[in-house]
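User: tokens in, sequence out, please.
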């Protein structure tokens, strides 16, 4: 999986937009205050996906050992990090869609 394909999957979600966020690129919900549902490092090595459901986070980390790791943001566990070079495209798509839904996304 590469950064271009991850970007394509994130932006394929209805209304998703890409904006800079400090040293990262962010994928956000539509609107002026678009909530971030994922970020990616500029080198494309990591995709950071915000998952609110704690059980789902734990399941992804267990399922994807060595590929999916805990994401700490603001001192708390907020989601998962994917090492894109090792990630399965289906996993990336599923995680992005879950985060998008958890942040208020509704399929058209």
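Assistant: Sequence out:
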């Amino acid at each position: 999986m590469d950064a271009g394909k991850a970007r394509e999957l994130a932006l394929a979600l209805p209304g998703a937009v890409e904006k800079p966020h400090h040293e990262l690129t962010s994928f956000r919900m539509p609107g002026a205050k678009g909530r971030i549902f994922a970020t990616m490092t500029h080198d494309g090595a990591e995709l950071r996906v915000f998952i609110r459901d704690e059980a789902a986070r734990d399941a992804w980390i267990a399922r994807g050992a060595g590929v999916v790791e805990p994401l700490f943001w603001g001192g708390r566990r907020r989601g998962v990090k994917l090492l894109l070079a090792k990630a399965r495209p289906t996993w990336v798509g599923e995680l992005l869609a879950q985060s998008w839904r958890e942040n208020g996304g509704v399929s058209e």
